[in-house]
Specification:
binds uridine 5'-triphosphate; nine-stranded mixed sheet
């Protein structure tokens, strides 16, 4: 069973400036909970309990969020507000949180390589907290669905969704052979292709399960699109020498790295989670 989940959270979040000038993008709240906590809860639901964060300068608030706040807890003791901290307190007590820094923003592949010491020589999940994912059925989030697939196939898996042709330039896009409903064996991948260069409309979103051999592959992967070390390029190498699966997950995904997606997610959470 996969126990480790890596959270690359070193990005600058420039699309949210000035909000992200002094605050990490991953701490932006959907109603009353920061984005990153939704991610950690999804990973915990999938049975994971070791959470590694690849952070950068100015991201200390994330480490503080997953730590006890003695003064605050002392202050609200007996006031009836303690229950507002109940969920995060339980998360902290039941899991391990560790942190390392990516010293330079050299791309997602490089961020994942920087997290190697946090997950060791084990298969691990990668969760991009700016993608909020909601499973079709309660209790069966996207990482849980992928974890179950991993137990069956024992190879790297990426989550995909169909996107309109004019959106392919925002994603890694795959080509694959269909194995069964919603599951493909990857034969090609292109990072942020123009619509005419996209091998399909199946785009990779921010959920991955990776086998640890990916680290050595990333090391040998030269910078690609935008001069960054792309995880997509490393995964293509892995796919060509072995097997990488693409899974069309059951559920919804909100791109909270964009203003529109963030507002949609806020409305969804307010209606379905907070009020519902
Ligand atoms: P994005 O492409 O969304 O970049 O990264 P960003 O900096 O977070 O946001 P914008 O585009 O400037 O608004 C996708 C994910 O990969 C992480 C980011 O933190 C984000 O979760 N990432 C990206 C890193 O950790 N390191 C990198 O070098 C690049």
């Amino acid at each position: 069973m996969i126990k480790n989940c890596l959270f690359p959270v070193a990005g600058y979040g420039t699309r949210f400036l000035p909000a992200t000038k002094a605050m990490p993008k991953e701490m932006l709240p959907l109603v009353n909970k920061p984005l990153v906590q939704y991610g950690v809860e999804e990973a915990q639901e999938a049975g994971m309990n070791n959470f590694g964060f690849v952070t950068g300068r100015g991201k200390r608030a994330i480490a503080d969020h997953f730590d006890i706040s003695y003064e605050l807890e002392h202050q609200i003791q007996g006031s009836g507000k303690e229950e507002l901290l109940g969920d995060i307190r339980t998360l902290i007590e039941n899991n391990t949180f560790s942190f390392t820094r990516q010293h330079q923003m050299k791309g997602l592949g490089h961020a994942i390589l920087s997290g190697r010491t946090l997950v060791g020589d084990n298969p691990f999940a990668v969760l991009l907290a700016d993608d909020l994912c909601v499973g079709e059925e309660p209790g069966n989030g996207v990482l849980k669905q992928m974890s179950e697939l991993y137990n069956q196939f024992r190879c790297s898996i990426v989550a995909i969704q169909e996107v309109p042709a004019d959106q392919t330039h925002k994603y890694g896009v795959i080509a694959g052979e269909s194995m069964k409903e919603g599951l493909y064996r990857i034969t090609d991948m292109v990072e942020k292709p123009a619509p005419e260069d996209a091998p399909s409309n199946l785009a990779i979103i921010g959920r991955y399960i990776l086998t640890p051999d990916i680290f050595d592959i990333i090391k040998d992967t030269p910078p690609g699109k935008n001069g960054e070390v792309q995880i997509t390029d490393a995964l293509l190498t892995q796919a060509k020498s072995g097997c990488v699966l693409a899974y069309k997950f059951k559920g919804n995904r909100f791109d909270c790295g964009s203003i529109d997606g963030f507002v949609e997610a806020t409305n969804y959470v307010y209606e379905n989670v907070y009020k519902g």
